[in-house]
Amino acid sequence: MSKLTTKARAAVPDRQFAFPAQRKEPLEDASHVRNAIARFDQVQGVSDAERDAAWQRILAAAKQYGVEVHEADWRELRAGTGTHLTN
């Protein structure tokens, strides 16, 4: 995954984060999208409504960057299938 410097992260618009109000999980490229999916359940202090919205942003970014996501809903991540994405 490409690492964002503090300065670069500060320059990322809110709309490019899965959780924009908290500025958590940037969606800058395919690597960041995969990371956002892998760490989705680690984000604390957000409501299910915020998770729903974040998931939609992740799916849109995944489509943009060619990341195939097998789950239609973030709740499926908790199923423990181990096959969340490819590419």
Give descriptors for this structure.
single chain; 87 residues; two-stranded antiparallel sheet; 3 helices; alpha+beta
Describe this structure in words.
By secondary structure, this protein is of the alpha+beta class. The protein has one domain. Helices cover 38% and strands 11% of the residues. Strands 1-2 form a two-stranded antiparallel sheet. The protein has a two-stranded antiparallel sheet with strand order 3-4. A hairpin with a 4-residue loop joins strand 1 and strand 2. Helix 2 (30-38) packs antiparallel against helix 3.
Task: List the domain count as a whole number.
Answer: 1
Low-confidence stretches: none
Total beta-strand segments: 4
**Radius of gyration over all CA atoms, rounded:** 12 Å
Q: Which descriptor suits the 3D outline? A: globular
The largest sheet has its strands arranged as 1-2
Number of helical segments? 3
What is the mean predicted local confidence, pLDDT?
Answer: 88
How would you classify the helix and strand content by structural class? alpha+beta
Major β-sheet, in short? 2 strands, antiparallel
What is the end-to-end distance? 13 Å
- The SSE order reads HEEHHEE
**What percent of residues adopt helix (DSSP H or I)?**
25-40%
Report the sheet-strand fraction: 5-15%
